Amino acid sequence: MKKKYYFIGLILFVLSFFIDKKIVLFFVNNKIDFLVNLSLIINNFEGYFIFPLVLIVLLFFKRKKKIIPLIMSFVIYLALTSLIKIVVGRERPFKKLDFDGLDNVNENRSFPSGHSTAASTILPFFSFNNILFYLWIFITLMIMLSRVYLGVHYLSDVIAGFLLGNLIGDFSIKFCEKYKKF
Asked: How many domains does the structure of the chain reveal?
């Protein structure tokens, strides 16, 4: 992602803190069964499912040079999101704002969104194909929206996850290009 997009993302991230609570409460108070069900389906796609799927796509398009950076991205994504969630310990919206949330989610690990981080980590890997790239942007936005819609993340959590994921993907690709041993 270009530097100007990171800058715009950082501005959106900061601004999102001012409307976090309002956005979550809007979704909680205006739920539609179809969207809840769709969001629950999206909820079941964890990061460790997304990466093997992308690996298959890269192999199909004969992008073997991106396999090691993809694996590197997966490891960094797992380590970094887990570490940040533990260090920050941000309460999830359903806990903080006292409404029913999802079962089987840690109540104090909202920041950053792991789903958003995993999905956006993939974006740099699809830069070789506009159709895949824009399709994945759409999928990533749907994942991000579903996390806020279910009340398990604030808007700032998913924006941070989006930025972090792009950073991880960009870093992994650039690192492996610089040290062409991979």
From this structure: 1
Look up the pTM and report it. 0.87
Report the b/e string of 119-135 with b at 16+ CB within 10 A.
Answer: bbbbbbbbeeeeebbee
Domain containing residue 94: 3-178
Per-residue pLDDT tens over the stretch 25-53: 898 888 888 888 888 888 777 666 778 88
In angstroms, what CA-CA distances link 47 with 25, 28, 104?
Answer: 26, 25, 16
Give the contacts of 89 (CB within 8 A, at least 6 positions apart): 108, 109
Rounded to whole angstroms, the Cα distance separating 171 from 167 reads 6
The CATH number linked to 82 is: 1.20.144
Q: Which of 83, 81, 49, 51 lies closest to 69 in space, CA to CA? A: 51
